[in-house]
Design brief:
Layout lengths: L1 H21 L1 E9 L8 E8 L5 E6 L1 E6 L4 E7 L6 E5 L9 E3 L2 E3 L6 E2 L17 H13 L4 E7 L6 H21 L7 E7 L10 H7 L1 E8 L1
Parallel strand pairs: 1-7, 1-8, 10-11
Antiparallel strand pairs: 1-4, 2-3, 2-5, 5-6, 9-12, 10-12
């Protein structure tokens, strides 16, 4: 009996050690997108897609352990700011067994630039590298079914203004189509095209032109 108990303890101990060695830490900080200062926020996290593992913090930072291959969604909300949801993927683990994901919040009324949204040059075809960022928008809208957004398309100001306006419209239409195919109701998504009329930078350099080619998201209702 003692040998059996010892064997069970050894096996159990090995399992705990294995679990501890397999643990990944997801961590990050919540900051103001404009100033970079920390923001105390209501932070909620849950496993995707079941939500069976979840937790919350009320702080400007978060840190929690994740196991296996499940992804987690993390939503940060603070008074006076637009809520933001990000997705943590264990595949993004670093050498320290951590997945670092900071969340930058924009003030209410300001737009959120989808920085990782990529299109083929002169076209409205979404590059697959953009899907993770768009999936975060999907998760945010699924978590809070009251949220309504407006997608705003911008191009650089080189070429025909009419063609640029049409291109910016077709790009936001493509983004809307992606979100709808992921389960978001059409009525929750408006679109607006600006062409090259609202540049972020006026320099005629490749870097400035790339910065001006963008899609922004405005939260109309939350």
């Amino acid at each position: 009996m003692k040998k059996l108990t010892a064997l069970i303890l050894i096996i159990f101990g090995a399992h705990v050690l294995y679990a501890q060695n397999d643990a990944i830490t997801a961590e990050g900080k919540i900051t103001d997108a404009r100033t970079g200062k920390g923001i105390k926020a209501n932070i909620r996290y849950s496993s995707i897609p079941t939500g069976s593992i979840f937790g919350r913090f009320n702080d400007s930072t978060f840190s929690f352990s994740i196991f296996g291959t499940a992804k987690y969604q993390i939503t940060a909300a603070a008074e006076g700011y637009n809520p933001r949801t990000v997705i943590v993927d264990p595949k993004d683990i670093d050498a320290n067994k951590k997945v670092i994901r900071d969340i930058m919040l924009t003030s209410k009324g300001q737009t959120i630039i989808l920085n990782h949204l990529i299109f083929s040059q002169g076209k409205s075809v979404i590059d697959p590298k953009s899907y993770p960022e768009l999936d975060e928008v999907v998760q945010m809208m699924k978590e809070n079914t009251r949220i309504e957004i407006q997608l705003e398309g911008h191009t650089d100001n080189v070429g025909s203004p009419k063609a640029n306006l049409e291109l910016s419209q077709s790009r936001v239409d493509a983004v809307k189509k992606y979100l709808v195919e992921k389960g978001i109701a059409k009525g929750r998504i408006q679109t607006k095209a600006f062409g090259g009329s609202q540049p972020l930078a006026n320099e005629m350099t490749p870097e400035a032109r790339a910065k001006n080619r963008r899609v922004e998201m405005r939260i109309l209702k939350d």
